[in-house]
Amino acid sequence: MFAILVLISIFAAGFCCGYGVRAWRSRKRSARYRLYAPYTPAATGAKQSEHPS
Q1: Maximum distance among all alpha carbons in the chain?
Q2: FRET pair for 42, CA 20 to 30 Å: which of 1, 4, 17, 23?
Q3: C-alpha radius of gyration, the chain, whole number
Q4: How many helices (H) and strands (E) does the chain have?
């Protein structure tokens, strides 16, 4: 019974660590994308009709 409890706790700890690393990498990737995203007028909220052609 004790062995099952230890295995379940190890599995839960591994799952939580994996989920945390996945969330951390996702936040890091999204911040990097925003930093290097190309400039587009749509990103600033300006409409195409407002720009002189």
Answers
A1: 76
A2: 23
A3: 23
A4: 2, 0
- Three-state SS letters, 23-49: HHHHHHHHHHHHHHCCCCHHHHCCCHH
Could you read off the pLDDT of 15-46 as tens digits, one per residue?
999 999 999 888 888 877 777 766 655 555 55
Contacts of 37-44 spanning 24+ positions with Cβ under 8 A:
none
Q: Among all chains, which residue has been given the structure tokens 């799952």?
A: 15
pTM for this entry = 0.50
User: What would the two tokens of residue 28 be?
Assistant: 């890091």
Distance (Å, whole) CA 19 – CA 13? 10
